[in-house]
């Protein structure tokens, strides 16, 4: 029965309705741990969906080494010092490592990580800062760090751009460039086969704050991603910040009326489109964060891979507000969460 024809769309039947069931049951989590054989190709071969209602469990965030709730507010400004003339220099060391991570209860994925986490650290700078990223490749495969932004070709981290375009196993490279333009960007490995290198987890958010910063707000980083657990070039699990249903399991607590700013990035591989939909509210949307004027007041935004934008909103009413991909299939396979407004 197992075979290449057994894709996540075939598996989908097992997961369909799980999200709705959990909500009807009171809003607790829905990502079942499977039967112990649900992880990876073996689970697929047995015909189980990797996520299905019924059994319950929880992801061991300590073992993963990162917690999706901490990822929301974990901004890494690097080590800073002033250069002669006053310009700020920011320095980071980012290490590519192979690591098995748990992406849903009992579902393990052999990830490639930046600094041991997926998504990698959210690197943050102010417009005009000089950035120096020492990239160490501690894996058996070549990798790079390719940043979106305005920089010289030699800092691009893509094949054919010099030594940073392919960093061999055990080697390192320093990428240096200015933080510009201000906005919400991303970085990812640009080694071919590109889809595989991204799908394995080598990506992260990159924020460049405008001169003077943005208004004070509760800030959250959400990197939309997915995981191909049976290596058929289609995703079985969808998420924001890696762990399926992490924010359905434990809603994101927000105070009523406070300004909330969400840095939303889509790095999802294998699917053409991703989206963010919010219940009971609307948000101002700043595409790529490169303007201080929003383009739209909406409750749904679509992003292709590499697209990103900043959402700003306030919740005037207390209660639980769902957010999820408006591809219902993704929502039911992990990409659903809740804001708990008090
Ligand atoms: Cu790579
Ligand atoms: Cu890119």
List keywords for this structure.
about 350 residues; mainly beta; Immunoglobulin-like; 6-stranded mixed beta sheet; 5-stranded mixed beta sheet; 21 strands; about 15% helix; disordered N terminus; binds copper (II) ion
Can you put this structure into words, describing what you see?
- With 342 residues, this protein is mainly beta.
- It has a single domain (60-342), classed as Immunoglobulin-like, CATH 2.60.40.
- 13% of the residues lie in helices and 37% in strands.
- It contains 8 helices and 21 strands.
- The chain has helices at 8-15, 18-24, 40-45, 61-64, 68-72, 194-199, 246-249, 328-332; strands at 75-76, 79-82, 88-104, 107-114, 122-126, 130-137, 146-147, 172-178, 183-188, 203-209, 218-227, 237-240, 252-254, 260-266, 274-278, 283-287, 296-298, 300-303, 308-313, 319-324, 336-341.
- The strands form 4 sheets. It has a 6-stranded mixed sheet. The protein has a 5-stranded mixed sheet with strand order 1-5-10-9-7, with no helix packed on it. Strands 2, 3, 4, 6 and 8 form a 5-stranded mixed sheet that branches.
- The radius of gyration is 20 Å and the shape is globular.
- The chain binds copper (II) ion (2 copies).
């Amino acid at each position: 029965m197992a075979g290449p024809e057994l894709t996540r769309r075939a598996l989908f039947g097992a997961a369909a309705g799980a999200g709705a069931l959990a909500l009807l049951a009171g809003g607790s989590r829905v990502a079942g741990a499977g039967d112990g054989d649900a992880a990876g190709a073996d689970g697929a071969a047995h015909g189980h969906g990797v996520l299905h209602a019924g059994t319950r469990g929880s992801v061991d965030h300590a073992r993963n080494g990162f917690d999706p709730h901490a990822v929301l507010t974990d901004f890494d400004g690097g080590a800073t010092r002033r250069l002669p003339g006053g310009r700020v220099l920011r320095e980071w060391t980012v290490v590519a490592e192979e690591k098995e991570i748990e992406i849903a209860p009992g579902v393990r994925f052999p990830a490639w990580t930046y600094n041991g986490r997926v998504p990698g650290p959210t690197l943050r700078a102010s417009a005009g800062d000089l950035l120096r990223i020492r990239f160490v490749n501690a894996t058996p495969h070549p990798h790079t760090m390719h940043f979106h932004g305005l920089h010289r070709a030699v800092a691009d981290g893509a094949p054919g751009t010099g030594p940073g375009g392919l960093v061999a196993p055990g080697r390192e490279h320093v990428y240096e460039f200015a933080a510009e333009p201000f906005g919400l960007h991303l970085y990812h490995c640009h080694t071919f086969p590109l889809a595989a290198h991204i799908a394995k987890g080598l990506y992260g958010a990159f924020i460049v704050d405008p001169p003077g910063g943005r208004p004070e707000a509760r800030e959250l980083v959400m990197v939309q991603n997915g995981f191909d657990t049976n290596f058929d070039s289609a995703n079985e699990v969808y998420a924001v910040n890696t762990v399926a249903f992490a924010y359905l399991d434990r809603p994101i607590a927000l105070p009523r009326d406070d300004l909330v700013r969400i840095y939303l990035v889509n790095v999802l591989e294998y699917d053409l489109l991703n989206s963010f939909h919010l219940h009971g509210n609307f948000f101002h949307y700043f595409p790529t964060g490169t303007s201080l004027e929003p383009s739209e007041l909406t409750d749904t935004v679509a992003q292709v891979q590499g697209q990103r934008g900043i959402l700003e909103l306030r919740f005037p009413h207390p209660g639980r507000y769902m957010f999820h991909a408006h591809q219902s299939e993704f929502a039911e396979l992990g990409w659903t969460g809740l804001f708990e407004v008090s």
